[in-house]
Amino acid sequence: MTTYPANHTRSDLTLRLRSAGCVFAEEEAELLLAEAGSPQDLERMAKQRIAGFPLEQVLGWAGFRGLRIAVDPGVFVPRRRTEYLVELGTRFARPGSAVVDLCCGTGAVGAALAAEVPGIELHATDIEPAAVRCARRNIEPAGGRVHEGDLYAALPPGLRGRVDVLLVNAPYVPSMDIGTMPQEARLHEPLIALDGGSDGLAVQRRTVAEAPLWLAPGGRLLIETSVRQAPRTAALFDAAGLRPEVLRSEELDATVVLGFRPESTPEGHD
Fold this sequence. Notes:
Blueprint lengths: L9 H10 L5 H11 L3 H12 L4 H5 L1 E4 L2 E4 L12 H10 L5 E5 L5 H9 L4 E6 L2 H11 L5 E4 L14 E6 L14 H6 L13 H13 E11 L4 H10 L3 E7 L4 E7 L10
Helix pairs in contact: 1-2, 5-6, 9-10
């Protein structure tokens, strides 16, 4: 059994974390104690958390749909609300389905879907090299492939027109709202993974516009967004020839716009 010096006891660690503003200090102390391999390890991790690093980056993993998803420093941390994307994805993905996790970050969405729907053909993309390295740790053991590049430009050309399920957690925070986000996100997660442009829809706009070129007939695009932005996100789907539906999970405080590509799309969208 590992023993720690006085300042590493559960109660003292909890007090240090609470004093630093950690709302769930007791639970975080338990996780740090369980993860640390030595007193030195624990002190390093405690100092990182007290300095404001996201808990998941300090631990090196995040819990997501019952999985431990590897999380590297400087990579966007998967949020629990994004589990709703996976929940919806399981309704449409089948063994053999071509599935893409676009703007994948850690690859949590794709890895979780592959765990719940074995046998999918899984691809994931991100523009951030650090995210791609991290995603490969989570996606490749699930039999998927991770590609580095800007949105669809990263995908193999052979996927064009045959993607059954396209899952997207693109940045959707308006630029002017970034300053209101928690410090741990603003300082320790890449801005490119947070900033959705002046109206929060810049990346969504590009994603939706090209989606019909990549979706198979009958394929579905699912994009996480906010309650406030959902009507405008849905309008983008409609303009691209995708039939939109706004879906909501009150339990997870999550909003997703689902778009269906008909067997034939309106003229100008093929």
